[in-house]
């Protein structure tokens, strides 16, 4: 049986497989039993036929001994005519010691279909559709010749055909009976298995572990299988319930934690916003007064200091430098406050984007100009490789510039010497 047939057999329903196995086994057993009977009958018939023919050959040998001894051919042939009562004896031959034909009987004298066999001592052999039986003609311990009986095996072939026909009929009847009997008897095995398959399919398809297979009262392997399957479903159902309870409990705790984090985050955002606004008000005043002081200092004080001594000039430069530091640090602090406010807006999703068409070169120039003091302070070289062929982009000018500034500032921070390429 090839692989494709095996695959087709695997795809047959379980009930049909069971029927095929039972009916097939029954038919095979019957076929082997009938075959054994036929072989036995065949061999037994052969031996019985040979035994009968040996007896006939011995009788013929004794009855024709005087004719052979006195060379009376006519008497010998008359003696052989008694064989016409045996319709399956095709021929009877009397051969002398030289193998020459002395006398003969043919069932059909007009059709001598039997080929004269070579001279053979006492015994028999089968050849084609005939069996040849030889018996010595003996007188006073002297072999005068040989009697040969040729028997047609048509009867044996007819019996074989009858046996074969009987076997076919028996197999058909037995197969039919086995099929209908199997249709009822297989339920003992198939119903629990099919029920188990249906339950397993329902569990797989619907994820419902509360269903159970029908429990059989028997204590055989199928009963144990169904019982163990139901126990497995009990354990899975219990485990799922425990998992659902655990997940529900963990989800509740996670939800509470998330709500607590949200509250903390809202408090943090509110704190940042409040602090930022509280810091911006005095910081604005500080920056404003610093600018006013510098302006009035340059307009009213500095002109009057022309010609002053070196110490006064140093103090003037120090005051201007200190005012610049105040304004620079104030501006940086203002940027930090703005960044904090922007972060709060980002978290609240309230950031306003001012989208416009921008030039990449202008953004790079703005970022490099803003970070130039940092680069100069560390003694680095800022090299700009800008291609004016960049197409215009759409974005928020201030925020994109802030991104570039942050990138360059980080590069400056982590570069001790050399060149920064932008």
Q: What can you tell me about this protein's structure?
A:
There is one protein chain. By secondary structure, the protein is α+β, with helices and mostly antiparallel strands. The chain is built from ten helices and nine strands. It has helices at residues 3-10, 14-63, 65-69, 73-80, 154-185, 187-206, 221-301, 310-348, 360-377, 397-413, and strands spanning 89-96, 101-106, 123-127, 130-139, 142-152, 355-358, 381-383, 393-396, 419-421. It starts with a helix and ends with a strand. The mean pLDDT is 77.
Quick tags:
422 residues; alpha+beta; five-stranded antiparallel β-sheet; two-stranded antiparallel sheet; 10 helices; 13% strand; rod-shaped
Q: Please report the distance between the alpha carbons of the first and last residues.
A: 76 Å
Could you name the ranges where pLDDT drops below 50 across 5 or more consecutive residues?
none
Largest sheet: 5 strands, antiparallel
Strands of the largest sheet, in order across it? Answer: 2-1-5-4-3
Task: Summarize the topology.
Layout: H1 3-10, H2 14-63, H3 65-69, H4 73-80, E1 89-96, E2 101-106, E3 123-127, E4 130-139, E5 142-152, H5 154-185, H6 187-206, H7 221-301, H8 310-348, E6 355-358, H9 360-377, E7 381-383, E8 393-396, H10 397-413, E9 419-421
Parallel strand pairs: 7-9
Antiparallel strand pairs: 1-2, 1-5, 3-4, 4-5, 6-8
Helix pairs in contact: 2-5, 6-7, 7-8, 9-10
């Amino acid at each position: 049986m090839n692989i494709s047939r095996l695959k087709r057999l695997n795809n047959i329903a379980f009930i049909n497989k069971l029927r095929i196995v039972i009916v097939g086994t029954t038919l095979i057993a019957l076929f082997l039993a009938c075959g054994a009977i036929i072989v036995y009958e065949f061999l037994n018939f052969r031996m019985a036929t040979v035994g009968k023919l040996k007896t006939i050959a011995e009788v013929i040998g004794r009855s024709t001994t005087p004719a052979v001894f006195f060379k009376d051919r006519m008497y010998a042939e008359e003696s052989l005519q008694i064989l016409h009562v045996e319709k399956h004896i095709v021929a009877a031959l009397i051969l002398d010691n030289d193998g020459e034909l002395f006398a003969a009987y043919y069932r059909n004298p007009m059709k001598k279909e039997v080929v004269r066999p070579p001279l053979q001592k006492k015994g028999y052999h089968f050849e084609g559709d005939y069996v040849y039986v030889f018996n010595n003609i003996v007188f006073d311990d002297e072999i005068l010749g040989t009697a040969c009986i040729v028997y047609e095996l048509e009867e044996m072939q007819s019996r074989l055909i009858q046996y074969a026909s009987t076997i076919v009929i028996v197999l058909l009847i037995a197969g039919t009976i086995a099929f209908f009997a199997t249709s009822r008897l297989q339920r003992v095995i198939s119903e629990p298995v099919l029920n188990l398959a249906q339950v397993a399919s329902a569990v797989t398809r619907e994820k419902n572990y509360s269903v159970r297979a029908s429990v059989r009262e028997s204590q055989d392997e199928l009963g144990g299988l169904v019982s163990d399957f139901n126990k497995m479903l009990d354990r899975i159902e219990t485990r799922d319930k425990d998992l659902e309870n655990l997940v529900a409990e963990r989800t509740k705790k996670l939800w509470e934690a998330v709500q607590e984090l949200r509250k903390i985050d809202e408090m943090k955002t509110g704190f940042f916003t409040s602090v930022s606004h509280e810091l911006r008000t005095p910081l604005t005043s500080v920056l404003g007064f610093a600018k006013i002081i510098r302006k009035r200092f340059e307009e009213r004080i500095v002109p009057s200091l022309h010609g002053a001594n070196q110490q006064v000039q140093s103090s003037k430069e120090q005051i201007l430098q200190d005012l610049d530091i105040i304004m620079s640090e104030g501006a940086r602090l203002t940027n930090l406050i703005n960044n904090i406010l922007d972060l709060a807006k980002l978290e609240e999703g309230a950031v306003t984007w001012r989208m416009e068409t921008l030039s990449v070169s202008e953004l790079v120039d703005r970022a490099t100009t803003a970070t130039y003091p940092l680069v100069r302070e560390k003694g680095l070289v800022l090299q700009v490789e800008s291609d004016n062929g960049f197409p215009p982009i759409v974005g928020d000018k201030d925020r994109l510039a802030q991104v570039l500034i942050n990138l360059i500032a980080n590069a400056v921070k982590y570069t001790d010497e050399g060149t920064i390429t932008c």
